[in-house]
Amino acid sequence: MKALLDLGPLVREGALFASRGAAGTCRLDVQEGLWPVEADPGQLGQVVQNLVLNALEARPDGTVAISLENVRREPPAMPSGPCLRLRVTDQGPGIPADRLDRIFDPFYSTKLRGSGLGLAVTQSIVARHGGQVEVRSEPGQGTTFDVYLPALPDRAVVHPEPPAPAPAMRLRVLVMDDEEVIRRVTQRALAPAGCDVEVAGSGEEAISRWRAAREAGRPFDLAVLDLTVPGGMGGQETLAALRALDPAIRAIVSSGYSSSAVLADYRAHGFVAAITKPWTAEQLRRVVAAVGARPG
Ligand SMILES: Nc1ncnc2c1ncn2[C@@H]1O[C@H](COP(=O)(O)OP(=O)(O)OP(=O)(O)O)[C@@H](O)[C@H]1O
Ligand SMILES: [Mg+2]
User: Fold this and answer.
1) Rounded to whole angstroms, how far apart are CA atoms 96 and 101?
2) Report field, pTM of the whole predicted structure over 0.90
């Protein structure tokens, strides 16, 4: 069923879902003030997942860059006028020129266990939305898929889930995540519930914010810590450092790796709760409300 959508959250969730348990990482770059598109959220979620899966399969330990932005296209481009462009770029081996026109064929696959349907389905969904899929690749240079969808700049997005009138929590929450998108979404999810949210992009930043807040006499009640930070201080290490400052600290671990031992036994690892990405705003609010109140 089609609805007027903000594709930002949908792309974020699709990418997180596709990269669950994968060794590679996704870098998301979603423009502010995206135009709405009229689309079926389930089908477009599938498009995002198919492209991100292919990208992660092309270079399993690589970084997949995913961006979403408003663009205006001039005729004869199809579609033309205001569009949303979803771009998925990988660092894989690329696709030889003589194979580029076959990759959208149903059942065309070069993978051992591939159905060869991912791109065929992607293309037919995008066509049903009046859009277009374009691919650019050179052997050794990685591959870029662009999906263009007609946008409706003058229409307001209808949010399927209006922010619930939850009772104000009045909690000071510090969120540490290396992904900007997650920090933004966390803030957006918790602020309407009455939380006073600060964000940190690294463990080091989280520690200095925690310390500064204590010194200013406005200590945090709760931390939400990303478990794995590529090349940086992860949630566990950060928690240990924060506990040295504040032995009574209460922290929630957040991770996209649902199979992680820390998520499975978060208490043994010193956390008061665990939440698996991608979570919805409502799930996050519920967890924070459940554990957030300061004991006593
Ligand atoms: N990012 C990419 N880099 C390199 N080759 C790609 C990429 N995306 C698609 N291909 C090529 O296109 C083929 C078809 O892709 P498609 O997603 O339709 O099927 P598949 O990935 O093989 O199978 P399935 O999607 O069912 O797992 C792939 O087998 C691969 O050869
Ligand atoms: Mg595929």
Assistant:
1) 10
2) no
Intrachain domains 3-150 and 172-292 with the same fold: no
Give 60 Cα–ligand 1 centroid separation in angstroms: 13
Domain ranges of the chain: 3-150, 172-292
Architecture of domain 172-292: 3-Layer(aba) Sandwich (3.40)
Q: Which two tokens stand for residue 263?
A: 């998520």
Q: How far is ligand 2, taken at its centre, from the CA of residue 103, in Å? A: 10
Q: Is 84 in the pocket of ligand 1 (CB under 6 A)?
A: no
5-10: average pLDDT:
93
Amino acid at 97: A
Which fold, 3-150?
A: Heat Shock Protein 90 (3.30.565)
**Which element (helix H / strand E) includes 56?**
helix 41-58
Span 33-55, average pLDDT: 93
Give the residue whose CA is nearest to atom 1 of ligand 1.
55
| Predicted local confidence at residue 296, as pLDDT | 37
